[in-house]
Amino acid sequence: MRKRTFTILGLAMALLLAFNVAALAQDEGMTPLDIPTIGDMEALQPGEKAPSFTLKDTSGNPYTFSPEERGGACLLVFWSIFCEPCRDEMPLIQSLYERYKEKGFDVITVALDGDLANNIAQFAKQSKLTFKILLDELGDDDSLIVAEDYMVPGTPTLYMINGKGEITFVRVGRVSEEVLTGEIEKALGN
User: Fold this and answer.
1) What is the value of pTM for the model shown?
2) What's the CA gap between 15 and 108, in Å, rounded?
3) 56-82, pLDDT tens digit by residue?
4) By CB count within 10 A, which of 14, 64, 114, 145 is most buried?
C-alpha cells in the first residue's frame, strides 16, 4: 500500500514538472522541445503576388511552380508529417482536388520535413493522395527556402492562388470544408 502511494505521488510530481516545463517554454517563446516559435511572422496576405519556386518531389524530380503562368486556381499547402491537423486535413484536400480538378483547380503541397521523402511518400500512398507533394529545402542560413519566401508562420498554412498568380485566401491552421469550398469557387471565378 505504501509503495503504491509513493508510485502515485512520484507520477503526479513528474506530470507537474512536465507541465511546468511546457508552460515555462511557452512563456519564453520556445516550444516544449526547445524549438524557437515563429512569433511575429505573418503570412503573405490576399492581394499579394505568389512567389515562384522550384522544389523536388518525393521522387527527387524537380517541379517549378509559376503562379502567374498557371491559369486556374491553386491551393498551396505548407505542412509537416509531424503536424496532426495537417495530416487530418489531407483527406478533405484530396476530395476537393478530385471534385474541382476538371474545372482548373490544382493542389500543391510543400512538406517542411527535410530529409523525410520516403516517409512522406509512404504517407501519401497510404492516404491515396494524388496531388503534387514537394519538399522544401534548407538555404545557406538553415531556413526553409520556400517557407521563408511565403512567410509561413506555422503548419498548416494554406494559400489560395487565382489564375493571375494573386493570393486570394490565407489560412494558418485548420479550415472547414465550407470555407475551403467557397474559396475554391471564388478563385475559379464561379
Assistant:
1) 0.77
2) 41
3) 999 999 999 998 777 789 999 999 999
4) 145
